[in-house]
Design a protein that fits this description.
The complex is a heterodimer of chains A (397) and B (159).
Chain A: H1 9-12, H2 18-28, E1 33-34, H3 46-57, H4 70-84, E2 94-97, H5 99-111, E3 117-122, H6 128-134, E4 138-143, H7 154-160, E5 165-171, H8 183-195, E6 199-203, E7 229-234, E8 247-250, H9 253-266, H10 272-284, H11 286-309, E9 322-323, H12 334-345, E10 347-348, E11 350-351, E12 363-366, H13 371-385
Parallel strand pairs in A: 1-10, 3-4, 3-5, 5-6, 6-7
Antiparallel strand pairs in A: 2-8, 7-8, 9-12, 11-12
Chain B: H1 3-10, H2 16-23, H3 27-40, E1 60-68, H4 77-84, E2 89-94, E3 101-107, H5 110-121, E4 127-134, E5 140-141, E6 144-145
Antiparallel strand pairs in B: 1-3, 1-4, 2-3, 5-6
Helix pairs in contact in B: 2-3
The chains are: A alpha/beta (397), B alpha+beta (159).
Chain lengths: 397, 159
């Protein structure tokens, strides 16, 4: 019986994830050092875990308001106001979701009519394109290039605009390049959005992880932008809480109301014990977050230097926890490089093409990995790329 | 704190080259700074953190609360330094609250601790009283958790 004929067309149209095959090879091997993760290597700080345990002890095991606990929404409002100088009303302008992934899905489903276009910048997080397709939208990638440090310019966005353009999806700091956006670029982009009446969907999940003394600047803080922006953020990356699944969307009340319609029927609410833990994270964990951020920054310095020293040019990412070295000099494609590195040296990195066509010639190396492992991984990678060294596999057919 | 010190505090064996890479300095600059910290006494020593319970030794750790009389001109310092000089004393702090010095001592046996307190510590002029408490079990030492090393399995590749 051919079951594929039962599949919805828009689901069928989504290609099988490029890294799934790779992932399966990695899982079948032992002794692999993985730089392929997309999450902190830290366990959630104890005081956050302890808050979740306490919530369970107190019998907090029921549903919450669909929007999320009001105490958590108040904490989110304060957190954003302190960092971005934008205020959101906890009662009507904030919705707590099951990770940013759900908030992204909700927003796209709540706002897109079939055929509406969403402009996003590539290389990009792997979920954007399929999530847009699943919401019956049309993804329009704007390619950014290594030659210009993957900079996103307003003019490129403007070129991609058509009468069906509805949403501009931004992700700064960016997974996988670690890029951040400068003041001038973001102001010019805001101007384009206002002139062309685009909504902005800004995924700022890495905003707490910015280096070199920089500060994340959200587009929603610019004049005239709060009213047309859906700001997405969550606890996963900054607080090392990926498994808790707590994200949130902040937007003007009528948009949150629309997101809420999808959320309440699909999900009901985020798990209450995770929400309780998130309150502790947002209110009391600046110290823990800063310690992790500082460690990531040192590991970034380390990995970037080592990659450049071994002849893989790598710019220094200003945010997130990914290095995105250029491996084109090896003559291998991203996929070949990753597979051969894995098989000969047991180091897993993610091929740049997993993040869109402009990722060809690059691989993503997560540096949210302990120093010992990072060092060992760099030694193995160096052996792999150094010609005629015993571990080198680059020149082989 | 200087990130070099933070790194050394986490792992004193980290190579100068790795430290240099992590803090974006040259190896020479790192070496120079560490030498300066050693010279000025910011870095006191490099030691291994050892879980003595694993060695099945009978060594005893005791925490002794000591009340002393401050001296005119010298305060607590001279007396505290005198007590700190005993080999048995591993740490010695002046603290606030109901007593003055918190003294941690390590001895071969309970009897040795008793002898140290009775014969050495209590007899020091200016020591008014002592209260000795023994360590029963070690859970965390110098920031290192002993009971259960948290080994968490993560998916090797995630987006």
């Amino acid at each position: 019986m051919d079951l594929s004929r039962y599949l919805a067309n828009h689901v069928r149209s989504i290609p099988r994830s490029g890294i799934r095959d790779f992932f399966e090879v990695v899982q079948s091997m032992s002794g692999v050092i993985s730089l392929g993760i997309g999450e902190p290597d830290y366990v959630t700080p104890w005081r956050i875990r302890e808050a979740a345990i306490f919530a369970l002890e107190k019998g907090k095991t029921g549903y919450t308001s669909n929007l999320g606990l009001i105490h958590l929404r108040q904490a989110i409002a304060r957190y954003i106001e302190q960092r971005q100088e934008v205020s959101y009303d906890p009662k009507t302008e904030i919705l707590v979701s099951v990770g940013v992934s759900e908030a992204l899905d909700l927003t796209l489903r709540a706002l897109l009519n079939p055929g509406d276009e969403v402009i996003f910048h590539e290389p990009s997080y792997v979920s954007y394109s399929p999530s847009i397709a699943l919401a019956h939208g049309k993804g329009v990638p704007v390619q950014t290039r290594a030659a210009t440090d993957f900079r996103l310019e307003a003019i490129d966005i403007e070129r991609a605009i058509t009468p069906r353009s509805k949403i501009l999806l931004l992700n700064f700091p960016t997974n996988p390049t670690g890029g951040v956006i400068g003041k001038e670029d973001i102001e010019a982009i805001a101007d384009v959005c206002i002139r062309h009446d685009l909504l902005v969907l800004s995924d700022e999940i890495y905003s707490g992880l910015v280096y070199d003394g920089g500060k994340h600047a959200s587009i929603t803080a610019l004049p005239g932008m709060k009213e047309r922006t859906v700001l997405l953020n969550g606890c996963s990356k900054s607080f090392a809480m990926t498994g808790f699944r707590v994200g949130y969307a902040c937007a003007p009340a009528p948009l949150i109301e629309a997101l809420m319609k999808v959320h309440q029927y699909a999900i009901m609410c985020a798990p209450i014990m995770s929400q309780e833990a998130a309150i502790e994270a947002l209110e009391n964990c600046d110290r823990e977050v800063e310690a992790m951020r500082r460690d990531y920054e040192q590991r970034r310095n380390f990995i970037v230097r080592r990659l450049n020293e071994m002849g893989l040019p790598c710019h220094s990412p200003k945010g997130a926890f990914y290095a995105f070295p250029d491996i084109s000099r090896t003559g291998l494609s991203s996929a070949e490089f990753s597979m051969r590195l894995l098989k000969s040296q047991k180091v897993a990195v993610v091929p740049g093409t997993a993040f869109g066509a402009p990722g060809e010639g690059f691989v993503r190396c997560c540096f949210a990995t302990g120093f010992d492992k990072l060092k060992e991984a760099m030694d193995r990678m160096e052996a792999f790329v150094t010609p005629r060294s015993p571990g080198s596999d680059v020149g082989k057919p | 704190m200087d990130p070099i010190l933070q790194l050394l505090q986490q792992d004193a064996r980290m190579s100068r080259k790795d430290i240099a890479n992590a803090v974006n300095l040259s190896v020479e600059e790192v070496e120079q700074r560490i030498k300066e910290y050693e010279r000025s006494g910011v870095i006191l020593a490099y030691q291994a953190v050892i879980d003595t319970e694993k060695l099945s030794s009978d060594d005893v750790i005791a925490f002794i609360e000591v009340r002393i009389t401050p001296e005119r001109g010298g305060g607590f310092d001279r007396l505290a330094e005198r007590i700190a000089k005993f080999d048995e004393v591993k740490s010695c702090w002046l603290i606030s609250g109901g007593y003055d010095l918190a003294v941690m001592v390590e001895c071969k046996s309970l009897r040795a601790v008793a002898r140290f307190v009775a014969e050495k510590l209590s007899t020091v002029e200016g020591v008014l009283s002592t209260a000795t408490r023994f360590r029963l079990k070690n859970y965390k030492q110098d920031g290192v958790l002993l009971t259960q090393r948290e080994q968490v399995e993560r998916l090797p590749v995630t987006p």
